[in-house]
Amino acid sequence: MTNIAGFWVRLAARLLDGLLVGMVVGTLIFVLQLDTGSQVVQTAESVMAMLYFVLVPVFLYGYTIAKRVLDIRIVKMDGSNVGLWTMVLREVLGGFIYTITFGIALIVSAFMVGLRRDKRGIHDLIAGTYVTHDRPEHWKRDSKL
Fold first, then answer.
1. What is the reported pLDDT for 143?
2. What are the phi and psi torsion angles at 64 (to 5°)?
3. CB 70: neighbour CB atoms within 10 A?
4. What's the CA dihedral at 22, 26, 28, 32 to 10 degrees?
5. What is the pLDDT of residue 137?
């Protein structure tokens, strides 16, 4: 594990991504004049957010839009790029654990990221990931040309 990203930059990225997803969903709701009280609309909002946090890092070398802006990314423990299964474990299973513990595990995880030397939270331990400032290997090679 190299160049590990700390608590504050990770929190900032999550908040920025949340704002981005919220703006996109809010715009769709406004433009399509959807009823936010509808269970279908609420489920669609959750699904869209989950798809963003699962799929975008798979296709963008561990980056979400906010992580790219803040120059951090999610990688596997060996430094390789995350795949779909890794992100499902990290976001879906991790999120499920945070939900069934009524947020207690989320608070514990935040302390883990803030206090542990390796800065890994529960979701990172489940998925075998960590967050780094290192750029993808092929970006490093291309910048030397």
1. 62
2. -105, 180
3. 18
4. 160
5. 84
pLDDT at res. 101: 97
Cα 58 to its chain centre, rounded Å, is 11
Predicted pLDDT of residue 80: 95
Which DSSP string corresponds to 40-108?
HHHHHHHHHHHHHHHHHHHHTTT--HHHHHTT-EEEETTSPBP-HHHHIIIIIIHHHHHHHTTTHHHHH
Segments in the chain below pLDDT 50: none
| Residue 74 CB-density burial (10 A; 0-12 exposed, 13-18 middle, 19+ buried) | buried
The model's pTM: 0.89
* Most distant pair of Cα atoms in the chain: their distance: 54
Sign of CA dihedral 129, 135, 140, 142: positive
